[in-house]
Amino acid sequence: MSDAAALAPAGALTPADETELAEAVASARAARAPLTVAGAGSKAGIGRPAQSARTLSTAALTGVTLYEPAEMVIGARAGTPLAVVEATLAERGQMLTFEPMDWRPLLGTTGEPTVGGTAAANVSGPRRIAAGACRDSLIGVRMVNGFGHIVKSGGRVMKNVTGLDLVKLAAGSWGTLGVFSEVIFKVLPAPAQVATLVLHGLDDARAVAALAAGLGSPFEVSGAAHLPASIERVPKTLLRLENVPESIAYRAGELRKLLRPFGSADLVTDDAAKAVWRAVRDATFVVEPRERAVWRVSIAPGKAASFVAALGGLPRQHFYDWGGGLVWLTTDAAGDAGASAIRAALAGTGGHATLARAPAELRAAVDVFQPLPEAMMRLTAGVKASFDPDAILNPGRMYAGV
Q: Residues in domain FAD-binding PCMH-type (predicted)?
């Protein structure tokens, strides 16, 4: 077994190339034997429990296949560790734009995150508010659908993305439509310096208002988060600035003036600034206690604080990212783990809640992903059937029966 294949979940099928990947899916379809699709299993605890006997892992499909620093694009086989891609980019002063989260601290998993898994889950961190989500940086994919057919969509430069945008459709589909064999991303230069303005003592509503003011300014805020009293004894409101030191100094000064109605702001730079954003990115503030269920709620920022307030005493801990557009919160992992209350509070807001961490039996009993209206559910089932008519790939991971 290769070193890469050894990273796959125990007992997994580990095809060595795209052809073997297609053959594995085609064989499973012929045998009517559903497969759990995985990279190295770092996000295995997200979604409804597996409804298959075998795991198909891309962990042996490794290697950077394309890197053109001048064109700012990079491609890699799906099982390539994310860390390898990030290190390759760092050597040339570049980075993935969407700041992918590392789910391992929250889920307690040990597998090495892969680029294919990152794309399949549309993993996007704090920089999403400035640079877009993972799917917005994904410009090309190769994948194997549920027929066992190899499909290519997009290209190696942005101008090649035309027609049906399968790239965007597949990103965030959690391996239910196809198994990525290769992904291609656009990238950006890495900033020379990172700094964070920190406001202290704001309640949730005032904090979100401060974040909105910063994000609405011309001063290029690339991260906007709030750590309330359930996380920090004195709440902290964080606005990130990136670029060369001279630019940061000017913008920080102007932002301080703009945010004066919310109080004075401290400026934190370099390692300390980077550390706090890693913690925001990886949701480490809600990792403990591990017996708690963890919810990830996307909502219009202006409605975030009132949504949390509507939950009353339900959350034990919570914090805000994306200027308030992403709320992480914990609940007791008993009953429905607060699903009814959370989704009732979301009604009419346009938001949606995902049960990000919970025991398998709870994830089997509760809608992990936001329930869809009937018409949208029919559309989702139809799309699934067009890519995977026999439900071979990750059946039921997102929605029961799909």
A: 5-190
Q: pLDDT tens-digit profile of 370-380? A: 999 999 999 99
Segment 315-357, tens digit of pLDDT: 889 999 999 999 999 999 999 999 999 999 999 999 999 999 9
* Residue 203 · residue 235 · CB < 8 Å: yes
Q: HSE-up of 115 (CA within 13 Å, CB side)?
A: 32
**C-alpha span between 313 and 336 (Å, rounded):** 15
Among residues 91, 102, 182, 98, the alpha carbon closest in space to that of 140 is found at: 182
At 12 the pLDDT is: 85
Which CATH entry fits the domain spanning 1-190+372-402: 1.10.10.10, 3.20.20.80, 3.40.50.2300, 3.30.465.10?
3.30.465.10
Topology of domain 193-281, CATH: Alpha-Beta Plaits (3.30.70)
Full-model pTM: 0.94
Pseudo-torsion of CA 58, 61, 62, 63, nearest 10°? -140
Q: Residue 256 carries which side chain, given as an amino acid letter?
A: R
CATH topology of domain 284-365: Alpha-Beta Plaits (3.30.70)
- Given a contact cutoff of 8 angstroms between Cβ atoms, the answer to whether 324 and 214 are in contact is no
